[in-house]
Every structure is written in C-alpha cells, then in structure tokens.
Design goal:
This protein has three domains: about 70 residues, Phenylalanyl-tRNA Synthetase, Chain B, domain 1; about 90 residues, Beta Barrel (OB fold (Dihydrolipoamide Acetyltransferase, E2P)), CATH 2.40.50.140; about 60 residues, no CATH class. By secondary structure, it is α+β, with helices and mostly antiparallel strands. Helix 7 packs across helix 8. The chain is globular and about 70 Å long. The chain contains eight helices and twelve strands. The strands form four sheets. It has a five-stranded antiparallel beta sheet.
Length: about 300
Amino acid sequence: MDGVRLRFRHRPLCPDASPDPRHARPARERRPLPRADLGVVVRVPLSWIRQFAPVEGEVSDLAEQLDDLGLVVEGIVRVGEGLEDVVVARVQEIGTIAGADRIRRVVVDAGQGSVEVVCGAWNFEEGDLVPLAPVGAVLPGGFEIARRKMKGVVSNGMLCSPRELELSEDHQGILVIRTDGSGAPAPGTALTEALGIERDVVFDLAVDANRPDASSVAGVARDLAASLKVPFEIPDPVAPDPAPGAPSVHELASVEVVDRDLCPRFVGRVLTAVPIGPSPPWVARRLTLAGMRPINSVVDASNYVMLE
C-alpha cells in the first residue's frame, strides 16, 4: 500500500514534538493550554469601577465595550436580586444526627423563635451569625426552599453559602457574618440590610496572561473610561500623621536596594499597633463581590489593595 508509514511504540514523529502518548484530538486539533497559561477570570463589580470613572449605560452595552477591549465577559451576575426573604440568624445549638457523619442538626434564632435546619457545612459554631433562607424563600436562580426530612430530622430552611446567594463563587462553607464592633445585626434582620447589599452587577472577565494591567479593578476602569471617553481618576489616599513620640521608620525597618537599575526607588511605611478584627462592612462587601472571603482587617487590607 503506497503512502503508509508505520512506527512502533509511542514515539514522536520529529525530535521537537511532544512525547504525548495519548491519541490526537479529532481533526488534528491541538490540546487546550492549561488555564494558568491562558489567563485568569477576574470578578469586577460595577460599583467598584464607578469609584474610578463615572461609567453609565446599559449592562449589555458595557459588556460589549469590555469585549471590544479584549476583556471577554464570560458571565454577568446581578447581585442583590432574590435575597428579599433571606434573614440573619444566630446559631443556638449544633448537634449530631444518628447515622449521619456529614450533616448536622442546627438550631438557629431567626428573630421569631427557634428554627431547626439540617446543614452539611462545618465552618461555623454556636453564637455565629449566618444567613437563613426559610421555607418558601426563593433564592437567586429561582431555587425555592422547601421543608425536607433528612435522616429523621426535619429541615425548616437552609443556611446559605456565598455562592448560593450569588455574592461570590465561594462555596466552601456557610457565609459567617462578621461585625466591625459597631453592633451586630439582630436575628431576623434582612440580610441585605445587615450586609448593606445594594443592587449591583459583577462582570466575570477573562483576562489573558499578556494583560496584567487588567487584573485589577483600576486597570479595567482605566480601559473602560478611555473607551467611553469619560474621566478616570485614582483617589488619593490620605496617610495618617505619625503619633507624637513614635519612633522613626529607620528605627523599625530597613530596606536594601541591590540593583538600582531594576529598582531605582523603593517606598515603605511601617504600621504598628494595628488592631486585628472584622473589616468595615463596605470592605467586606467589595471583597465578597470580587470573589474573596473576608477574614480580618489585616488580611482583608492586603487582599483589597491587590484587587484594586
């Protein structure tokens, strides 16, 4: 038979070919590159963009503008819709269920008496504030909460994760509501009121590896402002004055620049006696919308600066 070439074993056809022993994809297609090589998905809230530029218009039109800029919109999440029935509840009691090792019986105070639910998350404890979707509530996406019986225990609602509330993609556990010391919301308070949730839009943007400038909210806002011909401005933060009698920065830290061609200037600031606790609600809200779980004031400040 003419034109047939045989080879033994899984051996590349040429010296620089990939020694991949798997069969080729149909129609001689290349295998997809790993997501890390292609770029990342960045969640950008519209309200955060508007901190840098007065962006207005229909959400669909803004999505088209982002697409034209090379920031492909892979998804649009409308935050704050479908949360009208979700309330804040305080965990009163957590108990085991006979014959079940992955779910627990949880009793919460929802403001009008105790409510018994069954939950499979383990990231909360007694005394924590969590979101409760009671029976009859309809969550984002049209998911209606019904009364269910599991392992002989009746669940009269559902404790919700951030993803179930469409606040972020985090589904590793229940959303635990932290407070900044200004007063915890009372059980029965609407979740939107407790978290200061307002109607917002979050764009899921596919940012290629060659566009690191668009991996931050300010970078996306800069491109969008230029496309829409609206002003762009980065707010100038006001640094606090050093406390009277405080030691100088040189006494607390030192920096050595090894190569001044690569780093001609390095600026640092030392913070002391920083209290660690819950972040302000507006910080926690922005982090949540951007896909990050609020931890504490120090961690959240680092993540906030990285995202912005």
